[in-house]
User: Fold this.
Amino acid sequence: MSHILGPMLKPEDDRSVVRERPPLSVLTSGYRSASERRRRITDEALRVVQRLFLSQNQESPHVVVFAAIDPGNGCSEVCAAVAETLAANAARPVCLVDGNLHTPRLPEIFEVTNHYGLTDCLLEQGPIASFTSKPLASNLRLLSAGMLVPDSAALLSSSRLQERIAELRKEHSFILVDAPPLNRYSDALLFSQHADGLVLVLEAGVTRREAAASVVASLRSIGIPILGAVLNKRVFPIPHALYQRL
Assistant:
């Protein structure tokens, strides 16, 4: 199976969708149980951790934004799995940030509350650690979305976001941000201004090739590095050099 997404991201007929081999049914309905599905996601998360964060051949990024193209592509689940796997294998402090201020999913995934978090730390004073949850693991903390605000773009455009991410960098080796869909909100772009790059989340059989190509072109035009891609439930980190062929 080829892991290169280049041919799949070229603009084609609007009906085209990003596809993957083996057939989609093997990936989406081939699980015998929820535990098998979880195991497969964990295995794939380990691949992205090894290639993107723990590779000996490149300098590891420290702040990475995960963003889907469309809603429902599984971005939060993928980001959570990568954060857990990274924390288990890196033996260094990891912070998972719920940057989806519209429909936060990480508190539900980890079964914690969302009453205090990112928006609160942008609006209030105090050390960044006081806004994160108790450790999800010995070296993994969660900064939940916090209270919902009417204009998230204005809040994320403020200098406070840069200051708070700088604080997170001082206290954590890796920061992973779960951002809302690129085709619906600008939030992922605002987070990416203070990150080392972005990982795209695509859904095989659903994400249109034209939409994917348009997003890649837009990200390039504003200088946001694309570090890798997640296709459906399979993680394919891609070196930046390969994106030059798209």
Summary: The longest strand covers residues 63-68. Strands lie at 63-68, 94-98, 140-143, 174-179, 197-202, 226-231, 234-236. The domain at 32-243 is CATH 3.40.50.300 (Rossmann fold).
